[in-house]
Amino acid sequence: MGFFPALISWLPFLLIALLQLFKKKRQAKNELNHLPPSPPKLPIIGNLHQLGPLPHSSIRQLSQKYGPVLLLKLGRIPVVFVSSAEAARQVMKVNDLASCSRPPLAGIGKLTYNHLDLGFSPYGDYWRQIRKICVLELFSVKRVKSFRFVREEEVASLMNSLSQLSCSATPLNLTSKIFTLTGSIIFRVAFGKCFEESDDFDRERFYELIHDAETVAARFSAEECFPGFGWILDKLNGHNERVERVFKALDKFFQGVIDYHLKPGRTKQHDDIIDVMLGIEKEQIEQGHVWLTKTHIKAVLLNIFLGGVDTSALVVNWAMAELCRKPELMKKSTKRSSKHCRKQRKTPMLISREVMSHFKLNGYNIYPKTMIQINAWAIARDPKYWENPEEFCPERFIDNNIDFKGQDFEFLPFGAGRRGCPGIYMGTVTSELLLANLLYCFDWKLPDGMKEEDVDMEEQGGHCLTLMKKTPLVLVPIEYIPS
What we know:
With 483 residues, this protein is of the alpha+beta class. It has a single domain (37-383, 391-479), classed as CATH 1.10.630.10. Helix content is 51%, strand content 7%. The chain has helices at 3-32, 55-66, 85-94, 106-111, 125-138, 141-146, 148-166, 174-191, 203-218, 222-225, 230-237, 239-261, 273-287, 294-324, 327-331, 335-341, 376-379, 424-441, and strands at residues 69-74, 77-82, 172-173, 353-354, 359-361, 364-366, 371-374, 442-445, 474-479. Its cofactor is heme. Heme binds at residue 421.
């Protein structure tokens, strides 16, 4: 009889304990689901319909509504987009180790021989070894300076060509000239041959291959977004054929230049990047622990091919396009201003990161296997950090202490953290030398009948690693004669 009264007396305490347990479970569930904000999704496709032809611009618009840390589902793939300097700092500095891997995407995996390169390989022992070689042997200040004569010879050759063309005062495709120049420099520095000597590409095919490779590197396959049936879409839209075609063309070219370097009795005036890597492979063979093979070399050459030609050319091309719309700025261009003009980097989003361990970003949970993309384009146009951000104003960098090498996150042309670009010095000296010579040696005019506001500044749409101008820049060079 005394059991039931005792049970009744303990019942409130039991109810309180159960309520506390339920509350803790509910809090744990809420904590688990505390993900970044996301726009409304559609079945199957998720948020894919909200990305327009310029994804970086679409993400910027969404972030202005939902916040600088945004979660989108691209089919089945969760991607966190970061559009503020503070959040970028949290990713690439505070939580750099937790988020510095790369997603194993099929397209770029094919081009890099199963991620044997530097730029797209996952974080680990191999990545550390290949980065050490690139930083100390391939892109060191000493190595880049050793190629100074190549840069100066190629730029001088272009200036001579432009000088002859200026006599007729006819418009020329400056975009083509700029890309040919950077292509010639990379061919000589990396491959040990002049661009004109290559039997693998004509000029048009060369540009097309670069663009196709960058498109493959930047986009998901339909199978990755829609497992089980996406392969049908890949087959219909020609994605798989494009990947295979680009891979075969690049592999044939890389194998050809390696075979050229291995020819007995080959004469050379200077070690290029392939010579350096073949030398490292030879040393490893002699020491009995070989891990750098010809396949690894070809994977690294892909990074140089993509990162070396396009990016430097785009910087100069966009800078010249902006300057020709501001004749007064063009006239007063000095060495100092030309240095800052090339800081107008046209990089939309940094290469995707993959999260390796859980961390919090702006209070939101970021879980392993989540992809993160830094919208560097949006950050560089944030009025919170920049006055009149949409205006081309290279003077803003004069006496400005913002570091563009990854220490300050308001401006990230080369990324930051462990995944920062190791080719910073090579890229900056090339673009600066070319831009300075174009500004010093010539006055540039628009074709007859064309006004400054007529210059087309539209960006080329599509998923690509870089941001190209939709139409070529056509200008008239007038050789500058000092008074």
